[in-house]
């Protein structure tokens, strides 16, 4: 017989977390039938061999098993611990989209995805792949990055799957920056949604995975994206020439300003400072409204070729639908875009 059984796991970054496993015979599998059959497997330090998107061979995803449904030790010497983080990341991402936005899975069809951890050797990346409908996580090189299985990274990467099934923003130029920013915005909102005391919400991306050799506190900083040394705080006509992880800065900055407003503040012990590009002072409307507006803009109004001007229009249309054209929320969206040089 096969049945679902609630267990728990000791993660690398998020403390002890609940997990739903599948009992098959006398062995538990790290597979969650309550969330579309989402499972996590071991890539055994192998890599995919893909050419122009066609994969000749793929690293495995041998599902993790356990004898007592208490997974991992919380130490990276144990292969299951990163799997706990990855499975937990998919759980929180699934629950965020379902409970907050009414979206049933990444594709909206109730189907789960799967995760591979321990991909390659010292691999400093994580990525979503539409063709396998799966997530892949490296262990990091230990100098710049550790295992890439943190909540915001999981939310970021799986949001690439949501974007692909909705607006399908082309991954270059301004639309590519908006694609990346969508992942940072929703990934951050997943981290806030999880409300995990070991990994509290913030407006930093990847703060749990960076190591001292990286030299910065996070991969990206939404309050002032230029803190990473590369990202744009403000729109300019050449912003689309930047790498998509840097042109995203304009929309990340917009999102921070829309949620929290301009100026300096400290939240959950993290200090932010978010100057505007037009010397205006803007007030925030909170994270929940940011998420509602961005998700509606992404799923109803944005298309593959949406640029920054189009993102302003799309989010204003979403705010109009949700709150009305004369609402303070509608006004705040326009003010936050103007504050980053859009419109
Ligand atoms: N971690 C990178 C990203 O999500 C990997 C990629 O697919 N480009 O942007
Ligand atoms: Zn990305
Ligand atoms: Ca974060």
TrEMBL record:
Its main location: secreted. It is an enzyme of class 3 (hydrolase). Keywords: Hydrolase, Metal-binding, Metalloprotease, Protease, Secreted, Signal, Zinc. Residues 167-342 form the Peptidase M4 C-terminal domain. Its EC number is 3.4.24.-. It is found in: Secreted. It comes from the Bacteria. Residues 6-164 form the Peptidase M4 domain. Belongs to the peptidase M4 family. Extracellular zinc metalloprotease. This is Neutral metalloproteinase. It comes from Streptomyces prunicolor.
